[in-house]
Design brief:
Blueprint: H1 2-16, H2 21-33, H3 35-54, H4 63-76, H5 78-118, H6 126-133, H7 149-158
């Protein structure tokens, strides 16, 4: 029965010669073995002369003028319609833009925090890392042997550097 439905839907095109060659051969094979579809085809063949006898329907008065007026209205309002559609698309996507911006900001904060958290080894300070990167910036006491801020600070704390009435400025 499903084959009949498929071929019955094509019977009008079969009568008009609109089917592709393969489809037409399929339809003819089906019609050869299906008396119900042949009966439907015969009914359709009987309708063709009746339809031709009816002739063309008269054109309603003013139809051409209405069609042309509608086309002119559409042509005049084409640009605003395009602009309205463009604005609608922007509004539809604006929430997506805000969401993408927020997601990007969150990703930057998380990645930046993770990089800051893992950039130093445990027990290492940022000053130690900066000193290793550019030691010349920390070489304040360059005239002293083994001079560095850390060495001078340790010497000051242990009292090895200053004797008597000396101060750091005297060095």
């Amino acid at each position: 029965m499903t084959g009949c439905n498929k071929h019955r839907a094509r019977l009008g095109a079969y009568l008009d010669g609109e089917l592709a060659d393969q489809d037409q051969r399929e339809c003819e094979r089906h019609l050869a073995g299906c008396p119900a579809c042949r009966a439907v085809l015969d009914e359709l063949k009987g309708l063709a002369p009746v339809l031709r006898a009816l002739g063309a329907a008269p054109v309603p008065h003013g139809l051409t003028a209405r069609i042309l007026a509608g086309a002119a209205d559409r042509q005049r309002s084409f640009l605003p319609a395009v602009v309205r559609a463009w604005i609608y698309e922007i509004r539809a996507v604006s929430w997506l833009d805000g969401s993408l911006t927020a997601a990007t900001l969150c990703a930057v904060i998380v990645i930046g925090g993770f990089m800051g958290w893992t950039s130093h080894a445990p027990g290492e300070s940022a000053t130690q890392t900066a000193h290793e990167a550019r030691p010349e910036l920390f070489d304040t006491f360059g005239a002293l042997p083994g001079a560095s801020i850390e060495a001078a600070t340790l010497d000051l704390l242990t009292g090895d550097l200053l004797t008597g009435d000396q101060s750091v400025r005297d060095l």
